[in-house]
Structures are given as C-alpha cells and as structure tokens.
Amino acid sequence: MKKWTSWIIYLLVFALMAGCADAGSYIKDNYPLVSVDGKGKNTAKVYVAEGKDVPTTAKEIAAEDKPQEISKESADQMFLVYQDKIINIRKDPNNESDSLVEVDTVEYAKEHYDSSFLQGYITATLLQSLFGGGWFNSRGSSDYRGYTPPPTYTQRPQTPPAASKQGTTPPTTSDRKGSFGGGTAGGGTSTTPSGSVRRNDGSTPTYKKPTTGSSKPSTGSRSGSFTKRK
C-alpha cells in the first residue's frame, strides 16, 4: 500500500512540474530571436511567431504558462502579464501572417511604456502592483508601443539594355544588367587586354586595394528600433 502511495505522489509531483512551464523558456524554444535591447533586469527580447496571428500566438503561450492577466483578444496587439515579465504580441507590420513577440522584463516595461497606453490593455490595479503607484505620474511624453521592425523594400526590376544600331547587345557587368559607362569613341577610357582601365593619355590609373575585415553579425535577420516615439 505504501508503495502505491509513493508512486501516486511521484506522479502528481511530475504532473505539476510538467504543467509549470515558463513562458519565456517556451518562447525561446519555439520562436526565432530577431532582436535584443538592454541587458540584465532591464531587457527586451523580440521573437517572431511565423505563420501565426496575434490571438493564436497569445493563446499558445498562455496555454503553456497561465498569465496573471491577458488582454482582450485583438488581431493587432495583445499583452500577457506575469510576475516577472510582460509579453507584448503585435502583428508584424511587414508580414501580416506573422506576429512579433516581445518579452519585456518588468523594469524594461516600467521605463519604456506610457501608463495611459498600457491601461488600455492591462488593469490599473495590476500595473500598480508591478510598477508601484508613483509610476503613473512619472511618465513623460513618450509613447512606446513595442519593437518596430525595419521596413522591407522590393527591388524594382531593371530595364533590359537596348541593342546597338549594329544589332549587338551591350556588355553587362557581373552583378547587374546595364552597359558600361564611357567608351573609347566618347573620349573616355578604354580597357586593356589584362582587364585594367587605361586613360586617353596611355597611363593606367591605380586603385588602393580595400582592406578586408570582419564585422560581428547582428542577432537574427532583422534590425529594428526600440526608440521611444515622441
């Protein structure tokens, strides 16, 4: 009998531990990280939930770790509030099928968000318990709403080069379509058989060889802004 009791207690403890997944760890394990701001207890980390809208993402995270409060369902933006963090879920402005998941520490949220903005999503009582009563009167004119990703641009197709009067197509460079600028007929420069450029006076200009170096790659494939809006 004692043996069965021990097994039951063990299973209950295991079930409780399995059901207490941390929202931050779940997000880290399931969504790609795209940007980080701050450090230590004053940090914001942004992830992307690819192919998931805001309500779906919010419900998915809340199912893993029940928040103290979850804002009203919205297709544009929702908040999940925990004792040690605030999760801001927004529709990606560059891709409506994705959601941006910003995990803010309490200190980061306290320093960046305006009280009037957050009160539109989170009850004032909970905000006061997280940030303290003085926070409501300490905010300035900033209106931070969350991480802003950089805009995406679509490269315009280039017009194919026109054929010459002789019916030949002008030569193209190795990485883009278009004719080389200047030719011997126009009194400009010519190209020697070795590939160097020769001036009209017969001299060959020299070029300083660029130095090679390496730069530290940024986190993820995006580089947006955490700057407060004025």
Walk me through the structure.
- There is one protein chain.
- By secondary structure, the chain is of the alpha+beta class.
- The chain has a domain of 117 residues.
- It contains seven helices and eight strands; from the N terminus they run ααββαββββααααββ.
- The radius of gyration is 29 Å and the shape is globular.
- It starts with a helix and ends in a 32-residue tail after the last strand.
Q: What are the key terms here?
A:
two-stranded antiparallel ribbon; 230 residues; 26% helix; 8 strands; 17% strand; alpha+beta
Largest sheet: 6 strands, antiparallel
Rg of Cα set = 29 Å
The run of helices and strands is HHEEHEEEEHHHHEE
Content of β-strand: 15-25%
Count helical runs: 7
Distance between the amino and carboxyl termini: 68 Å
The largest sheet has its strands arranged as 1-2-6-5-4-3
Overall morphology:
globular
State the share of residues found in helices, binned by percent. Answer: 25-40%
**Average pLDDT score:** 74
Secondary structure category? alpha+beta
Number of strands: 8
Which ranges are low-confidence, i.e. pLDDT below 50, for 5 or more consecutive residues? 13-19, 168-197, 206-219
Oligomer: single chain
Brief rundown of the structure:
This protein is 26% helix and 17% strand.
Write the layout of secondary structure elements.
Blueprint: H1 2-18, H2 23-30, E1 33-39, E2 42-49, H3 54-64, E3 69-70, E4 77-81, E5 85-91, E6 99-105, H4 106-112, H5 115-118, H6 124-131, H7 135-138, E7 190-191, E8 197-198
Antiparallel strand pairs: 1-2, 2-6, 3-4, 4-5, 5-6, 7-8
